[in-house]
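Write out the 3D structure for:
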Amino acid sequence: MPLIYHHFGQIDSTNAFLQRKQSECDIRNWVVSADEQTTGKGMGNNGWESETGKNLTFSLAVDMGFLPAEKQFQLSKAVPLGILEVLDGFLPSEKLSIKWPNDIYFESHKLAGILINSTIKANMMDVSIIGIGLNVNQMQFQDWPTRPISMKMIMGEDYDLQPLLEQITEHIIIKVEQLKSAPNSIEQDYLKRLFRYRTWANYEVKGDALRLFMTGIDPFGRLMMTDEADNSYCFDIKEIKFLL
């Protein structure tokens, strides 16, 4: 089933647009992009800064009906891997990583964010709407804690947005298909690219600064850590803050 592209000059949110359309028609394999989102959101309803026409802000609807609902974090592994496969061809791959759960980082700077909204039928997933913001040609950002960076800031080059969008969406679809045929390879590749995996680093938990060692991800997508006293921890999203 080929991807169907829709582009808007301005829209409230590409994710919200697809959620509205979902009740009216089959949105599977739709890609909705925009030069500007007036109410674009990041994880946990965080804002997303994007200069009009400078970056990729888009959403992709994929059929995830083959995946049990309890394994839905598999999609959060596959999507950033698809993006990295493309970015590795433009940027120094050794400096690119996935910051848990699914942000794309260049060194300690945020390059892309991913927000996934999924529907579930019985005990299986149904359609997932994957919202992505990738900083491409923007040269200045506000002083966000995530320290945003763009491809142009890294390489000093302008990038054509539409071909980049098409490459990324096609590679995401390939990785989603790989969840059917080779899910273990997705797991292994995700850990290989995971920011701070099997290293000691500083984090904030309930207002306290802790030095922790990242040991992996549990089946539900929670972050597993140990401290210097060999105590084990398991964190859900928003329960731990990376100190960069």
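The chain has a mean pLDDT of 94.
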